[in-house]
Amino acid sequence: MSQKEDFSELQKLLHLKRLETPGREYFDRFLDAFHAYQRREILQQEPWYAKLVEVLCEPWVAGVPRLATVAASAACLVAGVAFFLGPTQPGTAQLADGKVVHPKGIVVAAVHDQAFKELQPELIETAAGGDEIQIPPLYVNGHNALAYDSRLTF
Amino acid sequence: MAVERVLPADLESGPTDEELVASTLQGDLAAYDELIRRFQGRLYGVIYHLTSNHEDTNDLLMEVFDKAYRSLPTFRGQSSFYTWIYRIAINRSFNFLDKRKRRQGAMSLNDLDEEGLPKVDLPDVSPQNNPNKAIVLNELQNKLNESMLKLSKEHRTVVTLFDIQGLAHAEIAKVMGCTEGTVRSRLHYAHKQLQKSLGIYLKK
């Protein structure tokens, strides 16, 4: 017996499954049931803000916080941490020893002493150095490095 | 054995599916009712043979026709309405099966049969005047459903569409979004698997 013939025997058996239908009555009533289903669906539709109001009004359900509440709290926490710990000035990065690195390679010592709050040009260390490369010096105001602006007069 | 091709009786007369779609989009709701009448039986079959549960099939069928109605404005006619709505039915059934699979961990033992498969609905197809034959038929039907449920959803779909619904390979490929070769290979594998588990019921 070939494999194809074997499969045709199987197909005969599978034809039995065609009998598994709910019958004509079900299909006669289906259209009415579908219309009722559609009406129900339309009535049950909530506006997009309904869920938001629901979460805000009821952040806890049966003593357990909603998933949306947990997610929103986590997002707020991450945003808060990023705001306080992030670099305070774009283009600079703080080293472990407290020095501030400028993108052009200038490393500036961080000074936290009140006495040094005034500008202290002598604290500047230039990483590039040399006479050929002229990098505008930076000033330290106690917290952050400031780019030197030649237009400023002292 | 030649597989009977299931064709809707009203395809030869009356408006085509595409004409009914156009009428529906122009606000003729009776046209969509006609589309439902044309496809309800076949889509019921597809969903039922994938889920093996009449209640779930009923819910899914409603969802499919509702989803199709809402998505009708996006139907571009690149494929036939028939292929398009079959695809919706299969996708919905697959989503449902995935959810059911995830849920099974939390199912009660009462919902499972002795082999750990979900209990299936079985309509009484047994001849009433021959109780012995009825017992054999019911046992066979149980075994057939168990074997079908053991197949992957893709393999079950090709068996359903080819062997039960009588669609051609090319049509199945369009509905499932794969090549005819893939359909043939899935069908061959599924037949072999079913043959293995139903071997004792088949004539040698």
List the helices and strands and how they pair.
The complex is a heterodimer of chains A (154) and B (204).
Chain A (H helix, E strand, L loop, with lengths): L2 H13 L8 H21 L3 H10 L2 E2 L2 E2 L1 H19 L7 E2 L5 E2 L5 E2 L15 E2 L12 E3 L4 E3 L7
Antiparallel strand pairs in A: 1-2, 3-4, 4-5, 5-6, 7-8
Chain B lengths: L16 H9 L3 H23 L2 H18 L9 H23 L27 H20 L2 H12 L4 H8 L3 H19 L6
Helix pairs in contact in B: 1-2, 2-3, 2-4, 2-6, 3-4, 4-7, 5-8, 6-8, 7-8
Characterization of the model:
The complex is a heterodimer of chains A (154) and B (204). By secondary structure, chain A is of the alpha+beta class. Chain A folds into three domains: 3-44, no CATH class; 48-85; 93-147, no CATH class. Chain A has four helices and eight strands. Chain A has helices spanning 3-15, 24-44, 48-57, 67-85; strands spanning 60-61, 64-65, 93-94, 100-101, 107-108, 124-125, 138-140, 145-147. In chain A, the strands form three sheets. Chain A has a four-stranded antiparallel sheet with strand order 3-4-5-6, with no helix packed on it. In chain A, strand 1 and strand 2 (64-65) form a beta hairpin. The N and C termini of chain A lie far apart (105 Å). The relative contact order of chain A is 0.07. Residues 123-130 of chain A have low confidence and may be disordered. Chain B is mostly helical and 204 residues long. Chain B has a single domain (9-201), classed as RNA polymerase sigma factor, region 2, helix turn helix motif (Rna Polymerase Sigma Factor, Chain: A, Orthogonal Bundle), CATH 1.10.1740. Chain B is built from eight helices and no strands. Chain B has helices spanning 17-25, 29-51, 54-71, 81-103, 131-150, 153-164, 169-176, 180-198. In chain B, helix 3 crosses helix 4 (81-103) and helix 7 packs across helix 8. The longest helix of chain B is centred in the first third of the chain and has 23 residues, at 29-51. The radius of gyration of chain B is 19 Å and the shape is globular. Chain A binds chain B through residues 1, 6-22, 27, 30-31, 33-34, 37-38, 41, and chain B through 1, 3, 33, 36-37, 40-41, 44-45, 48-49, 54, 61-62, 65-66, 69, 122-123, 125, 137, 140-141, 144, 148, 159, 163-164, 191, 194-195, 198, 201-204.
